[in-house]
Design brief:
Layout lengths: L1 H18 L15 H8 L4 H5 L5 E13 L2 E8 L2 E8 L6 H9 L5 E10 L5 E12 L15 H6 L1 H7 L1 H23 L3 E2 L5 E2 L11 E4 L4 E5 L4 H10 L3 E9 L11 E10 L3 H18 L5 E4 L2 E4 L5 E4 H9 L9 H10 L11 H12 L8 E4 L11 E2 L2 E5 L1 E6 L2 E8 L4 H16 L10 H7 L6 E7 H8 L20
Parallel strand pairs: 3-5, 6-10, 14-15
Antiparallel strand pairs: 1-2, 1-4, 2-3, 4-5, 7-9, 8-9, 10-11, 11-20, 12-13, 15-18, 16-17, 18-19, 19-20
Length: 495
């Protein structure tokens, strides 16, 4: 089908080239304005006021609508998601061959036009073209020029077609860029230093996840795409930087869902001589700053959930949350066997590496509490068994100084009061290695280079990681992570 369409369009090329100054794919036709600027500047001008505008404008865009009425042709010209009507006639074009060229043009062709602004009889802001050049020819048609791309798989696989047809998608990705710039601005204003750390890492760490593995030919060794930049960023705190952050891609060789993509964007933030209360305030302030900067309502419906972004978010420990939503008090359950029995009674699958009461508490939270957390809520005091990088609470070492932020049943942020004792960190890594032997393929390995760095001394430090993609989903009211990633991963197939 594509081959036949290409062959049919190629037959027109010779005549079009002759009418188009004997050339195609031009790059020497300068523009002095774009569609958006014309609309913003002249949208409120009357027909009479536009008659006083003598300046000629030159611009380019893609034809998304065409209609011919006798010796007049109307194009809808789209540029950067803004559309302007172009009017051509045998009377306004200086070169009569250009009108014949216009009759040959199809939807999606990219053209350059020059002319003056006016309003039509029905009052539509338009450009009366005195010159026309074809810049690029489209040899294929859109799947459905009226209804857009309905096949979701095609929408993600051929994002360029989705962006041509779907104004909402186009605006989502413009908003994505704005959000990342605002996040960067927020931390820059607080005098954080933006840094870059390696994506290819000899030892993966900083999170519990299965990595992507490859081979470094020159070094002759296995290497991994990072699952998190955490350990490198903390090495910079050891080095003497007081505040650092990194916005970048992480890669986790795991399943895909509306909430998960193996390649995703995060920001990680580290501040010396700060604690979890500081990171709680940073999280609250950042999210409020984004909603305020984008002038968005803080009370809204997301995925059929009513959400309220307040200045201060709710906060409770994991044990308190289980008591509130499941009416089970783990303050009264003090041994693993009792906890495991209770889990089995509640149809929770307990794996061999779930070998502590902390694991059982975490399983109850995942199975019965996460789905209840609608408005922004900090869950604090995670079990040490599932928090190998978080400092233990001195009065209750079964738990750690750690929180996760939940909104609309999803986790958005994860923060630690970091371990600075190298022996404690080494012992926690060893426990992770034992879990891996018992079948937990997400458990981390021992990173002796990080232990070495901690051995030189690190200030008490608070760290925070935020899922940028999920934050963008929330702000743009998108329900699938594929809707806010320009080119999401999909299973390959032959067209």
């Amino acid at each position: 089908m594509i081959k036949e369409e290409l062959e049919q369009n190629l037959k027109k090329f010779k005549e079009i080239k002759k009418l188009n100054n004997n050339c195609l794919y031009n790059n020497n036709f300068p523009v002095n304005i774009d569609v958006e600027k014309i609309i913003v500047k002249y949208k409120d001008f009357s027909k009479e006021e536009l008659l006083e505008v003598t300046e000629e404008f030159s611009l380019y865009g893609r034809i998304i609508l065409k209609r011919q009425l006798g010796k007049a042709i109307f194009f809808s010209l789209k540029n950067n998601n803004f559309t302007l009507q172009i009017y051509l006639s045998v009377d306004t074009l200086k070169d009569q061959n250009k009108f014949l060229l216009a009759t040959y043009l199809n939807l999606l062709d990219i053209i350059w036009v020059k002319g003056k602004i006016f309003r039509t009889k029905v009052g539509e802001l338009s450009l009366k073209a005195s010159d026309l050049v074809l810049l690029s020819k489209s040899n294929l048609h859109l799947p459905d020029k009226h209804l857009g791309i309905k096949n979701i798989e095609l929408k993600y696989r051929k994002r360029y077609l989705d962006l041509i047809q779907n104004n909402k998608s186009f605006e989502v990705f413009k908003t994505r860029t704005k959000i990342i710039k605002l996040i960067r601005n927020f931390f820059d204003q607080k005098e954080y230093l933006e840094v870059d750390t390696p994506i290819l890492q000899p030892i993966y760490g900083g999170a519990l996840a299965k990595p992507f593995k490859t081979y470094f030919n020159y070094l002759g060794q296995d290497i991994y795409l990072r699952i998190a930049p955490e350990l490198y960023l903390k090495k910079l705190i050891v080095a003497g930087f007081s505040k650092v952050y990194e916005i970048g891609k992480n890669f986790r060789n795991e399943g895909m869902s509306p909430n998960h993509n193996p390649e995703f964007t995060t920001i990680e933030v580290y501040a010396a001589n700060e604690n979890l209360d500081y990171m709680i305030k940073i999280s609250e302030d950042l999210i409020n700053y984004l909603f305020d900067s984008l002038k968005l309502p803080k009370k809204f419906k997301y995925n059929n959930l009513d959400i309220q972004i307040s200045e201060k978010f709710e906060k409770m420990s994991m044990v308190e949350a289980i008591l509130k939503y499941k009416n089970i008090d783990f303050n009264k359950i003090l041994d693993f066997e009792t906890g495991k029995k209770l889990a089995i009674e509640h149809n929770i699958e307990v794996q061999p590496f779930h070998n502590s009461l902390g694991h059982i508490i975490s399983l109850f939270f995942e199975n019965f509490v996460e789905e209840k957390l609608i408005n922004p809520t900090f869950i604090t005091e995670f079990p040490a068994a599932i928090s190998p990088l978080a400092r233990k609470i001195e009065k209750n070492p079964m738990f750690t100084y750690r929180f996760e932020l939940y909104i609309g049943k999803k986790e958005y942020a994860n923060a630690f009061f970091e371990i600075i004792d190298p022996l404690d960190q080494l012992n926690r890594f060893i426990l992770q290695k034992e879990e891996k032997k018992q079948g937990n393929f997400e458990a981390s390995d021992i990173d002796y280079t990080f232990i070495d760095a901690l051995s030189y001394g690190m200030c008490p430090t608070a760290g925070l990681g935020i899922g940028v993609d999920r934050l963008i989903m929330l702000i743009t009211n998108s329900f699938s992570i594929k809707d806010i990633i320009l080119f999401p991963h999909l299973k390959s197939f032959e067209e």
